Predict the 3D structure of the following.
Amino acid sequence: MGPGAAPPAPYVTGAASGAADVLPAVAPQLRALRRRGGLTLESAARAAGLSPAHLSRLETGQRQPSLPMLLALARVYGTTVSELLGETAAERDAVVRAADMEPTRAGGWTYWQAGGAGRGMQSLRVHVPYGAQGDIVRVHPGEEWLYVLDGRLRLRLGDTAHVLGPGDSAHFDSLTPHRIAAADRDGADLLFVHTLLQSPTAALCLGPTTPGETR
């Protein structure tokens, strides 16, 4: 998880938590939500600030999470604490209006949310600047789909390089080492969908990272 993620909180066990009778239902829900997002135990635990062993114990009901821990996991899985507790999710808006798509900028990239919050996929409109992070190779669980709206995009999948123009698209397994860069000085605009759930902008597989780091 990016900066601002809630730190791990002490486990709450026994009746002293006041919620021991209802929290056992969280265990299978945590596992189901993680798998729905295509996340490994290790990657989900790292994003939530936990160890894989701690998250495994939560998913098997051996430990009970505190409220701050539930909040952290809900952010990782792009959902709410209510859904983690098995409660009926609130009705989500199916339509996102252009006027509501506020741009977010990070590392030279510009993002517009093009999908609703709390979904199993994250949809974005992205402007890729020229020469930014074109040498960063990404590897992570999930799938990605992109569609070029304007400009030309350089996409390397494994050992194969592609140049995509307007109207071209790509759909690939994110475990394939990949890197993305604009081919022209004016940059490139694209639609982008990934199955990492609702990631903070700074943690997106397209977004900024430490030079030389792989994901």
About this structure: The two ends are 12 Å apart (CA to CA).
